[in-house]
Design brief:
Radius of gyration: 14 Å
Order of helices and strands: HHEEHEEH
Shape: globular
Oligomer: single chain
Number of helices: 4
Structural class: alpha+beta
Number of strands: 4
Largest sheet: 4 strands, antiparallel
């Protein structure tokens, strides 16, 4: 399915599929506004989520692990007492050199939906 066709449904409603083509800068620019608060850092799609305590942080990390396992697309995580930074990229694209794919944006949108489901405020995200 082309990027244009996939954008007719929200990213969080989509499912990850095997990717071999990295997104070009125009595709990234079109997708980034659909995941507010996420940034591109060192070629990865990144966002930090804030929580009230360690228990809530780990509950989110466990829910994120369940979702990413189901999508077969796993992020890099940095976990602290009251926060978690999530970084997505796709190792299989760009002839194995890595880069960003549609899957990174799909999982970012799903990570945001999980965060909202925990009752956390998007404004609380760092």
């Amino acid at each position: 399915m082309s990027l244009e066709n996939r954008m007719t449904i929200t990213l969080s409603e989509q499912y990850c599929a095997a990717q071999t083509r990295a997104l070009n800068p125009a595709d990234i620019a079109a997708l980034l506004p659909q995941v507010p608060g996420w940034t591109i850092e060192n070629g990865k799609l990144c966002h930090s989520f804030a929580f009230r305590n360690y228990y809530q942080t780990l509950a989110y990390v466990n829910a994120l692990a369940f979702m990413t396992h189901a999508q077969d697309h796993h992020p890099e995580l940095t976990v602290s007492y009251n926060g978690c930074t999530v970084r997505y990229d796709t190792h299989s694209v760009n002839e194995g050199k890595g880069g960003l794919s549609q899957n990174d944006f799909i999982c970012a949108a799903k990570a945001d939906a999980l965060y909202r489901a925990t009752g956390q405020s998007a404004a609380a995200a760092a």
